[in-house]
Amino acid sequence: MGEFDVIERHFRPLAGDAALDLSDDCALLTPPPEQVIAISTDTMVENVHFLPDDPVGTLGRKLLRCNLSDLAAMGATPLGYTLNLTLPRDRSFSEAWFTAFCGGLAEDQKHYGIPLLGGDTTSINGPLVLNATIYGGVHPHLALRRNGARPGDDVWVTGTIGDATLGLLALQGKITDPDGALSARYHLPLPRVHLPLGGIASAAMDISDGLVQDCAHIARASGVMLRINADLVPISPAAAALGPTYLKRRLSGGDDYELLLCVPAEHSDALQQICAVHNIPITRIGTAHNGQGVHIHDATGQTITFEKAGWQHF
Amino acid sequence: MGEFDVIERHFRPLAGDAALDLSDDCALLTPPPEQVIAISTDTMVENVHFLPDDPVGTLGRKLLRCNLSDLAAMGATPLGYTLNLTLPRDRSFSEAWFTAFCGGLAEDQKHYGIPLLGGDTTSINGPLVLNATIYGGVHPHLALRRNGARPGDDVWVTGTIGDATLGLLALQGKITDPDGALSARYHLPLPRVHLPLGGIASAAMDISDGLVQDCAHIARASGVMLRINADLVPISPAAAALGPTYLKRRLSGGDDYELLLCVPAEHSDALQQICAVHNIPITRIGTAHNGQGVHIHDATGQTITFEKAGWQHF
Question: Could you say which enzyme class this protein belongs to (chains A, B) (predicted)?
Fold first, then answer.
C-alpha cells in the first residue's frame, strides 16, 4: 500500500468537482456569485490536540468541525476543504485505519456539505499531524467580525461552556464521566454553522481558546470591556453533576467551539428567534461597556480572577 | 515571548488586507472578477523536506516557492497564502529565529506579490512542521491541466533538471558543490510563475516528485505515452561537472520545481517567444504518443530503466 494507492482508493472518493479528481496541481474553486471566500486553517497534533487512543473515526471529524466553527463565527457558508496528512514513519497505517479515518470524513462531509478539494500526504519522524483549511462563501456586508461590539451590547453564547475541557480531564482519568457526555464534546464539537446572524450580531467569534481569553479577544478588537456573570454561563447536566469545583476550568478551558456573540439589545428577539428555528440554545451572559479587558463576576458581584485565562501554545 | 506576542510582532506585519489584521476567525479573500480560485497546499517536515541546519531565512521561502510552483503549473496568478507553523516544544525559538524566518517570508511576499492571509501556530513533541496553502486566480478556460496532452505533442521542460536532488547530496557531504549552485537550488527553488501559457500548452504540471514520475502523472491523466530523450534533458554546468554518474538520480530526484509542459507543435514558436520574454530557458525533451506510461531512452535509442521512478512518502 503506497502513498498514491492510498490517495486513489481512500481520498479520491471524497473529492468534489473542484478537486479535479485530485490529479492536478491545484484545486479550482468557483466562488459563489457576489461572495468573498472565507478561509480558516487549523493544525491538530497528536498529544496536543488529540490523544493517541482517540477513536480514529473522530480525528478527521474533529478537524473539520474546528474549522467549520471558524466559518460559523464569520457567518460563512461552507464550500469545501483541503487536507494535509502527516503520518509517523515508525508506525504502519493499516487499511482499517484509512477506512476509519476517511469514513469519519465522509460522514461529516455529507452532514455539512463540504467536499474534499485537495491536499497532501507526507511523513514525519514524530507524531501524527493533521491540518485542514476550510473555505466558505459570505456576502462581504454580512461577514461577522470581532471588532463591531459597542458599549451596551449584550454578550451571548450558544450551547454550554466547558464540557470539552472537562471531557479531556475525563479521558485523562481525572474526573468521572458516567455517560461519556463530556468526552463526546472533546472528541466531536458541534460547530454552529448556517446561523444567519449577519446584521444581527455586532461581533462574533468561536470559543476555542477558552471563554475568558476569547472574550478578551473581542474586547480588544472592539475596544470595549466585557462584563461576564459567571453564574449565567450555561452549564451542561454532566458538568453540573461535578459540582462547583471546576468553574474556573470551565470558563478558561478550550475546545468549546460554541459561538460568542455581541448583540445590540434591539436585536435580542431576532437572535433568539433565529436560534430557536435552528434548535440552538443561546444564553445571555453579560454586557459590553466602555473600557477594556474582561471582568468576570459571580451573581453577588464578586470578581473572579484567573491566573491563566486560556491556552497559548508557547 | 508568548504565542500572541509572536503573532503580533512578527506575523501581523506580513498580513494583507484580506487577513483582517489576523484578528478574526477567517480571512476574507475577494476573488478577481470572472476568475476561479486555484488552491494548492504543501507540508514541509524537518528531516524530510528540509534539514535542521538549513538557513532559517530559506525555510519559509522554500515553502512558499513550492506552493507557487503549483500555481505556475495551473497558469494561476498568486493572490496570497495561509501559514501553519508547528514548533517543537523541546526547543526554544528565539527572537532572532522569528526575525530570520519572517524576513525570508517578507522577501518572497514582496517578490511574488503574495500577502499573508492567516494561519495558525501550534506546538509538537517532534520536529518542526511548516504548512502553507496558497491561493491564485485564473480564468477557468485558461487553467492548465494535466489531462490535455495529445499524441504528437512535444514535451518541454523549463530550466535545468536534477540540481535540487544533487544539492541534497551535496548538503549530505556525498558530492562536491564548489560554488554552492546545487545546494542553492535545494534551498530555494525558482517557481515559474506568471508565464501566460493558457491556450498554448495542452498539459502542464510542476516537477516536484522527479521528472520520470511526473511524466508518468501526465501520461496517465492524459491517456498518452511520453517518450523522453534523456540526452536532451537540460543539465546545469554544476551538474554537468559531476559527469554522467548521476543521470538516473537527476531524472528521478525531486524538488526541481520546473514546469513540465506538453505543447502542440504549432504552438512551439509561441511557447519559445513567451519564455524568451520572461527570460526562462525552455527545452524540448520528447514527444507524446498513443499508448501509456513513460519511455526514457538515450540519444542512441537505448532504453533507460529506473528501479525507483520518484518519491513516495509511504
Answer: transferase
Q: Which residues of A touch B4 (CB under 8 A)?
A: 312
Which tens digits make up the pLDDT trace of A162-203? 999 999 999 999 999 999 999 999 999 999 999 999 999 999
| Interface predicted TM-score (ipTM) of this complex, two decimals | 0.91
Residues A28, B120: C-beta atoms closer than 8 Å: no
> Long-range contact list for A56-60, CB < 8 A, 24+ apart?
A56/A97, A56/A100, A56/A101, A56/A104, A57/A100, A57/A101, A57/A103, A57/A104, A57/A107, A58/A104, A58/A187, A58/A188, A59/A101, A59/A104, A59/A130, A60/A101, A60/A102, A60/A104, A60/A105, A60/A108, A60/A130
Say which residues have a Cβ less than 8 Å from residue A193's Cβ, sequence separation at least 6. Answer: A68, A69, A71, A72, A77, A78, A112
- The three-state secondary structure class of A310 is coil
- CA pair distance B76, B60, nearest whole angstrom: 21
Q: What is the pTM of this model?
A: 0.91
Å between B182 CA and nearest CA of chain A: 24
Q: How far apart are CA B32 and CA A29, in angstroms?
A: 12
Inter-chain CB proximity B39 and A29 less than 8 Å: yes
Q: Is A28's CB within 8 Å of B3's CB?
A: no
State how far residue A141 is from chain B, nearest Cα, in angstroms.
11
Question: How confident is the model over A190-217, as a mean pLDDT?
Answer: 95
- With beta carbons less than 8 A apart as the criterion, state whether A158 and A192 touch: yes
Cell numbers linked to A229: 456573570
pLDDT of residue B23: 83
Tell whether residue B119 is among the known ligand binding residues.
yes
Angle between helices A95-112 and A56-74 (to 10 degrees): 30
Q: Which residue from B minimizes the CA distance to A148?
A: B24
Q: Nearest-CA residue of chain A relative to B25?
A: A70
Checking if the pLDDT of A70 tops 80, the result is yes
C-alpha to C-alpha distance for A300 and A281, rounded to whole angstroms: 25
Q: What are the angstrom distances between the C-alpha of B227 and each of B205, B263, B298, B304?
A: 17, 14, 10, 11
Q: What is the per-residue pLDDT across B59-86, written as a single tens digit (0 to 9) for each?
A: 999 999 999 999 999 999 999 999 999 9
Mapped onto helix, strand or coil, the DSSP state of residue B44 is strand
Asked if the Cβ–Cβ distance from B117 to A39 is below 8 Å, we say yes
Residue with cell 498529544: A47
Q: Per-residue pLDDT tens for B131-186? A: 999 999 999 999 999 999 999 999 999 999 999 999 999 999 999 999 999 999 99
Nearest CA in chain B to A91: B314
